[in-house]
Design a protein that fits this description.
Elements: E1 2-3, H1 14-26, H2 36-55, E2 61-66, H3 69-83, E3 90-93, H4 99-110, E4 114-117, H5 128-134, E5 139-143, H6 157-165, E6 171-175, E7 192-195, E8 207-212, H7 237-252, H8 254-272, E9 278-280, E10 290-295, H9 300-309, E11 312-313, H10 328-334, H11 337-341, E12 343-347, H12 354-372
Parallel strand pairs: 1-11, 3-4, 3-5, 5-6, 6-7
Antiparallel strand pairs: 2-8, 7-8, 9-10, 10-12
Bound molecules: 4'-deoxy-4'-aminopyridoxal-5'-phosphate.
Organism: Acetobacterium wieringae
Cofactor: pyridoxal 5'-phosphate
Protein name: Cysteine desulfurase
Length: about 375
Amino acid sequence: MIYLDYAADTPVDVQVLDLFCQINQVAFGNANGTHLSGKNAKQLIKQATIKIKNLLNCSTSEVIYTSGATEANNLAIKGVARNYREVGRHIISTCLEHASVSGSLKQLQSIGYEIDLVSIRKDGTVDLDHLNELIREDTILVSINYVDSELGICQPIPSIATIVAAYPNCFFHVDATQAVGKIPIHLDQIDLVTFSPHKFFGLNGMGVLLKSESLILEPQIHGGTSTSYYRSGTPFTAGAGATALALELCMAELKERLTQVTVKNDWLKKQLSAYPLVAFNSTGHAIPHILNLSVKGVKAQAFQAALSDRKVCISIKSACSTDSTPSRSVLTVTGSRDLARSSWRISLCHLTTDSELQEFMDIFDYCYKSLTKK
Ligand code: PMP
């Protein structure tokens, strides 16, 4: 198998897995409990939390553990909307967001919130002038991802944060799920940050929401007290420990891995450029881990099936949006329905080997020739 879908999921690092097993064996008590075992578990969560805050340089944030970035995005968006509904009901986002952001916004829209989508420029980045035009005194939230999962475009987050900061009633939420552990990130002036360790060799079924201390969310899961007011239920002690370690391991090798992935992406683009019907949908602002492309005239599903028959794993849109409608993100950035229909995503990491990429190119060549011949 040639796995080129690391933006969807990554294998768990063995050190992370070891720690996960260890914590489950030695600190299995419920961290909400008041006996010794509970206190030990609580202490482990506290240590993991401190490590995460230090690694991400966000000492004033609260760390809320969730079941995934999907839940963290729901909590951030609905939590702000419901808690600050008397202040305003206007929210700004983009059409490049993950389904858990766009779905939360759609739900809020159905109960009377006003949602505006800021324009995206041809290079895939947010139009800051348009954001300046849209934002107003009753805007309570701007939610924009750091890097989108389909095209991998990295947004100018510090510039957006500066615009939002001029509006005291407005909070800034960043879904950084495709950025954390992959590229250097800057979290100044951001009120809420989402990420998910299974994107950086941590556990699946685990997510994190960083929340600035001054912000209050309406919890979305009710019943029982917990280590966090915002997330009731038995805390996932081993998950918290494993997340902190996964982050630590990635951050220690961030620059080196980024360089490795850049070299692989450059090589791949060079090879693929030789095919006249290949168009790259990821722009120059994309992180090297994600390469979105179209083989013009060939539906994405047909290309994916041909690759999949030969044991190559790539994805169409993202793993969370696999319906057969054309990609909204690709349509927005390229303006072409045909490219949107034929777009698919290769995603790389430092584990991707040169021989895998060479083998991929051989298979790609075969599929390209058979699917484009008249
Ligand atoms: N946001 C983005 C940008 C993502 O790529 C994903 C995963 N596809 C999510 C949120 C949801 O993550 P999780 O699987 O942890 O719910």
